[in-house]
Amino acid sequence: MPLEEVRKGRAGKPKVRTGCKTCKRRRIKCDERRPGCLRCEKFGVECDGYQANIDPPQRRPKRDPLLPQKRALLPKDQCLIARLPQSQHLSQEPSLMPALDGPNDHQYFQFFREKSFHEFGDLPWMQVMLQSSHNQPTIQYLISSVSALCRATSLKYKRTPEYQAQHLQHAYRRYGQAVQGIRYLASTSGLESARTLLQASLLIYIFEMLQGNIPAAIRHLQSTFRNLIVDRLPDKGLFPYTHLEPITQYQCMDSELVTSFARLDVQLCTHPDSPPNFQSRSTILGIAYSTNPYSMPGSFPDIATARRYIEDLIQRARAGLPTNLVRHLQNGSVPSSPIAAAYRNKHWLSDEEVDHLHTQLSQWQAAFSPFYKRSLTPEGTHDFIRVSILCVQASNTSLVLSKFRPQDPNTDPLLQPPSSRERDACIEIIDMCRRAARHEDFIKGFVVHEGFLRSLFIVGLLTREEDTKYEVLGVLEEMSGRREGIWDAEVVRIAVKDSLRDLQESRILEDGLKFEDGYNEYETYDDEWSGSSTN
């Protein structure tokens, strides 16, 4: 065969230099349709977009073969972070935008703003954070890191390990660079850096929670708020806070950021891993909650204001719960024999305080009713999830106050028959949770703050009716995959299922004892009858 007729194979390089990144990696010709190419769409992969500027290829510098080569124990990107001298990241802040892979960071930022931003379900402080991120490299790195981790942990990318590894590598690289910025901020003095430190801490909390590192996430929040915020206060005491008024005494602290910390504090105070000396009024982060009396307004200007009022009521009711009871509930084991007096401590609410909280809860529900009715209409359906969360939390607070009001110090409240108010509250909570789980805006993923799961947990453990427990399990099945801070739908489902099994076993045992007692009575009667017949 003549030499000129031999067909040469295509060189191992992209056909075009202007195609999308995905086609370049696959080494195929790209049709260059924007924003995503048609070839990627047909192949069923996500198009990673196009590079902003195409730089001419540069030759790699030749290595001296005489020099010994050290084997890297870390990925290349992490080695770059590890080689930075300690003095470098304490002397100056990182550059405004990441020097490596800039277009990718832009895509991750867009993904966070358009998807993750809404899914986390805590828009106020995230809006503030996105605004300040334009001038804060540390926040930029963390946003890019959290966004990459969200994409890596999604079901879509779990099915494609190659792309999952790519997102994970980017997430860890940016996370390491953000830590450098945090070290710089921590080395400064005063409250000027408090805003950025709070924002960074919340993003790191989300980063750790997405990976299931709950203890690490809690420790980081504790360390940041106590060591970098509380210790910088003039009196170095607990941080004074009320849900009803914005934080104004510290101009550099955004009120929404502090509110997010307070909401997490209430959530973390009931964590099963709390210290043994945990008290019901204590704070994990170092916040002193206000107990000043106030009057409930007859109406609310918006949902955000109504949320602050119900959160204050929840905090007051939670602080008044018996310490041991809270621990038993959170550990998933409700005692069946101790009497109510064993639960009582100096923080237990009096009957007058319980009645006052019930009155305020009823007033709140009446004032909030127009928002709930509007959320059932097509015009207000976009608010249905957050409105339902507040309604469920209000009903749950009323249920707990009713169930554990110490009417008789010698009676176990867990064994008391449910009142009509308690039964109605359970039905209302289950119905609203079921409706929310079937709503188009319901997120079966991670959200920052509490929503429905804690209420379903309490209903599922407190009820003594098997049918109610089965209904709770059905709703939790529909919510499968949802995580609300430290609350996981699967963990709650297992706890309720175990309580159902324990209830069924106890009733079988009770029925057996009743049958045995009845049988013994029958034998005694039969013996007496036989004796009388013989005589």
From TrEMBL:
<keyword id="KW-0539">Nucleus</keyword>
<dbReference type="GO" id="GO:0000981">
    <property type="term" value="F:DNA-binding transcription factor activity, RNA polymerase II-specific"/>
</dbReference>
<feature type="domain" description="Zn(2)-C6 fungal-type">
    <location>
        <begin position="19"/>
        <end position="47"/>
    </location>
</feature>
<dbReference type="InterPro" id="IPR036864">
    <property type="entry name" value="Zn2-C6_fun-type_DNA-bd_sf"/>
</dbReference>
<keyword id="KW-0862">Zinc</keyword>
<dbReference type="GO" id="GO:0008270">
    <property type="term" value="F:zinc ion binding"/>
</dbReference>
<keyword id="KW-0479">Metal-binding</keyword>
<keyword id="KW-0238">DNA-binding</keyword>
<keyword id="KW-0805">Transcription regulation</keyword>
<dbReference type="InterPro" id="IPR052360">
    <property type="entry name" value="Transcr_Regulatory_Proteins"/>
</dbReference>
<keyword id="KW-0804">Transcription</keyword>
<dbReference type="Pfam" id="PF00172">
    <property type="entry name" value="Zn_clus"/>
</dbReference>
<dbReference type="GO" id="GO:0003677">
    <property type="term" value="F:DNA binding"/>
</dbReference>
<dbReference type="InterPro" id="IPR001138">
    <property type="entry name" value="Zn2Cys6_DnaBD"/>
</dbReference>
<protein>
    <recommendedName>
        <fullName>Zn(2)-C6 fungal-type domain-containing protein</fullName>
    </recommendedName>
</protein>
